[in-house]
Task: structure prediction
Amino acid sequence: MSKLEKGRMEIIESEYDIRKTISDILFLIENKVGGKDISIFSEIDDSIHSLLIGDALRIRQILINLMNNAVKFTDKGSITLSVSLNQETEESFNLTFSVSDKGAKPI
Result:
């Protein structure tokens, strides 16, 4: 039984636009890059519907943390936030979110 099933964390499901969510996250991160020579990109699988149902706040928090870490540990280069579709059924989607960086790491 997971922590979610034990009621330790409440998942609040609502409809949200994944593309707008990703765009908003990139905007926030681009403003935190500072003087670093970093380009920020996103890649979203075209087969993913724009409107999804899930806990947009938690997804946003997790992705912002991952992107902030990538910025923290990259001085120069690019950072990409990717969303891909692993599996789709009539009732659900299985998505993978990943953050990758290419470039120089701080010393």
Summary: DSSP finds two helices and five strands in the chain. The chain has one domain: 14-29+38-104. The helical segments are 18-30, 56-72.
